[in-house]
Amino acid sequence: MTQSEAPLVVGGHTLASRLIVGTGRYDTMQQMRDSLDASGADCVTVAVRRERLYERGGQNILDFIDLDRYTLLPNTAGCYTAADAIRAAKLGREILRTLGNPGADWVKLEVLGDSKTLLPDPTETVTACRALADDGFQVLCYTSDCPVTAQRLKAAGAASVMPAGSPIGSGQGLLNPNNLQIILEYLKNDDPDYPVIIDAGVGTASDVAQAFELGGDAVLLNTAIAHARDPIQMARAMKHAAIAGRDAYLAGRIPKRLYGTASSPSEGVISTRPYGSEA
């Protein structure tokens, strides 16, 4: 097994794929099922809604997900207060316990602060994270690209911090890679195995590759696949981009230089003509 194939460990969960895929916004449940399959993911995230997990047409998402194949990651999407997010997380835990799915003990925490940008509320997110961690949850926290908030979430007990590349569903890619690098540096300092998952804003496969090349441990995405012209083909592209980006990070890119460096040896050539020399 190569280093790039080493499994990702988040809390008590071991994932073979470093791509985590959402289940919302597909045209049909059959399209969602086939896209999940093409992505190669073994963890999928589902939004908790009231008494069950369902999509806008009323179909139960769980009828289209192989629960023996996928670990479910419940999320608190649509919550705007810590209290609502905590309630949704506990509901998700009970649903997954009933199903016997190993995802019952973790949650992707989202506490939004603005309905237009869908950016998180940092104060409510930290409050909810601390409460859920104290209650035994392994909390994966969606947050902005603010390094200070990321450190506070880790200190509050987050099993993983999930900084956004750009606003949810925007497709803008990684708008501030410098901040993401700072977050990676801060959270992994003296704790190199701490998982940092890039979440939100992915538009295409190159964004996924870039996230891994920066050093992200995983990428979570949904809209970039669900709203692609061909979701199943895009899911395959995301799968390969994750592998390529991770391999590139582990291999180590060459440094960027101002001037060119010849790839062929200069010894033994017939003649040379340095720049600026006379004919």
Automatic annotation (TrEMBL):
A Pfam entry, by short name: ThiG
An example of a Gene Ontology cellular component annotation for this protein is: cytoplasm
- Cross-referenced SUPFAM superfamilies, in alphabetical order? ThiG-like (SSF110399)
Q: Which residues form the active site?
A: 108 (schiff-base intermediate with dxp)
Annotated Thiazole synthase ThiG domain residues: 10-265
Give one GO term, molecular function aspect.
Answer: thiazole synthase activity
Q: What is its EC number?
A: 2.8.1.10
The catalytic activity, as recorded, is: [ThiS sulfur-carrier protein]-C-terminal-Gly-aminoethanethioate + 2-iminoacetate + 1-deoxy-D-xylulose 5-phosphate = [ThiS sulfur-carrier protein]-C-terminal Gly-Gly + 2-[(2R,5Z)-2-carboxy-4-methylthiazol-5(2H)-ylidene]ethyl phosphate + 2 H2O + H(+)
Residues annotated to bind 1-deoxy-D-xylulose 5-phosphate:
169, 200-201, 222-223
A Gene Ontology biological process noted in the UniProt record is: thiamine diphosphate biosynthetic process
- Enzyme type, top EC level: transferase
- Work out whether the entry's keyword set contains Cytoplasm: yes
Keywords attached to this entry: Cytoplasm, Schiff base, Thiamine biosynthesis, Transferase
Q: InterPro entries this protein is in?
A: Aldolase_TIM, Thiazole_synthase_ThiG, ThiG
Query: Could you name the domain of life of the organism this protein comes from?
Result: Bacteria
**Where is this gene product found?**
Cytoplasm
Describe which pathway this protein belongs to, using the record's wording: Cofactor biosynthesis; thiamine diphosphate biosynthesis
Q: What is its main location?
A: cytoplasm
Identify the PANTHER family for this entry: THIAZOLE SYNTHASE (PTHR34266:SF2)
Query: Which HAMAP family does the annotation name?
Result: ThiG
Question: Quaternary structure per UniProt?
Answer: Homotetramer. Forms heterodimers with either ThiH or ThiS.
According to its UniProt entry, what is the function of this protein? Catalyzes the rearrangement of 1-deoxy-D-xylulose 5-phosphate (DXP) to produce the thiazole phosphate moiety of thiamine. Sulfur is provided by the thiocarboxylate moiety of the carrier protein ThiS. In vitro, sulfur can be provided by H(2)S.
> What family does the entry list?
Belongs to the ThiG family.
By what name is this protein known? Thiazole synthase
* Classification lineage: Bacteria, Pseudomonadati, Planctomycetota, Planctomycetia, Pirellulales
